[in-house]
Amino acid sequence: MTEETDDTDDGRIVVVDGETRIEDALAVRRTVFIEEQAVPEDLELDAYDDAPDTTHLVAYDGDRPVGTARLRPYDGETHEERRDGDDGDGEHQTGTVGKVQRVAVVADRRGEGWGRRLVTCIEHVARERGFDRLTLDVQTHAREFYEGLDYEVVSEDEFLDAGIPHVEMEKRL
Question: Which domains does the chain have, with CATH numbers?
Fold first, then answer.
């Protein structure tokens, strides 16, 4: 089963549930992260790809996969929790947090709005799944893109992930 989340004359974005479309998501990631950015395959492809609570989205122009993103529940401590601490009862007030990862658009389709559509769709799916906040680790070159979508930088410093500079960003839904 696949669920259409965004379908226009300019292509469609679908929620993936099935082998063919998950392979399309992985193909985009191989092209962008492994081939273009030289991320080692063993770092790019991980156990979350097959986890039952992970949601993958794939953007299609016709039958061609041109972008992807994934969403999963996040049980790690977010910046907001580190900043706020607890409310006196010894427990963090966290809400339900989703982790957005592996957002990618193939090189020849960048600048056409696919990334914005993917993030908008993943936010819609996150709300449907009960998340009230999203966190993501963003490559620093994409920081302004996410700021334009109302994400805020919450990490104190840049950090390296697979040798690429990143910042942590969050958004309340």
Answer: 3-172 (3.40.630.30)
